[in-house]
TrEMBL record:
This is Sec-independent protein translocase protein TatA. Its main location: membrane. Residues 43-76, 93-114 are annotated as: Disordered. HAMAP family: TatA_E. Keywords: Cell membrane, Membrane, Protein transport, Translocation, Transmembrane, Transmembrane helix, Transport. Part of the twin-arginine translocation (Tat) system that transports large folded proteins containing a characteristic twin-arginine motif in their signal peptide across membranes. TatA could form the protein-conducting channel of the Tat system. The keyword rRNA-binding does not apply. It comes from Modestobacter muralis. It is a single-pass membrane protein.
Amino acid sequence: MNLGPMEIGLIILAVLLLFGYKKLPDASRSMGRSMRIFKSEMKGMKDDDVRAKDEARTTPVTGQIVAPSPVAGATPVTPVDLEAEAAAAEARAATARAAAERARTSAASADTAR
C-alpha cells in the first residue's frame, strides 16, 4: 500500500481538523517525551540483561561453598563460625519468645485481677 501525495495531504488535513492547529505543538511535544522515556526504559532493560548475564557468570552453583573475599585486618569466616552464629541467634530468639510469653501471662493475670 503506497501513500501518494494526495493521501498524505488528506491525512494531514484530517489531523488538523481533529486536533486544531493550537493543540498540535503540544501533542508533538508529548509524543517526543513519550518516545524519549520509552527509549530510556528500553536501554535500562538491556543494561539489566547485561548485568544479569554478568552476575550469572559469577554466581556460585547451588551447594558450592564460597568464602568471602578477605578484607585487610578481618578474620576469615569459617563454616563453624556461621553455625555458632546461627545457634546464638536461635538462643536469642528463644529468650525473646519466653520474655514475650511472660509479659503476656502477667498482663492477662493483671486483667483478671481487676
